């Protein structure tokens, strides 16, 4: 938590929020990518 507070004070709130949201989106995109890769197998069954 202290790392986040230090980051906010150094670079500003909007940048920290953007980085946080990009990290969350990255995990969702990884899940979506896995689902798309599994789709042909699912369609064959």
Question: Which descriptors would you attach to this protein?
Answer:
mainly alpha; YvrJ family protein; YvrJ; 93% helix; 45 residues; rod-shaped
Molecular shape: rod-shaped
The structure class reads: mainly alpha
Give the strand content. Answer: under 5%
Overall tally of structural domains:
1
Low-confidence stretches: none
Q: Major β-sheet, in short?
A: none
In sequence order, what are the helices and strands, one letter per element?
HH
Quaternary: single chain
Task: Report the count of strand segments.
Answer: 0
Helix content: over 70%
Distance between the termini: 47 Å
Mean pLDDT: 86
Please work out how many helical segments DSSP would assign: 2
Organism: Bacillus carboniphilus
Protein name: YvrJ family protein
InterPro entries: YvrJ (IPR024419)
Describe the fold and architecture.
The protein is an all-alpha fold and 45 residues long. It has one domain. The protein contains two helices and no strands. This is YvrJ family protein. It comes from Bacillus carboniphilus.
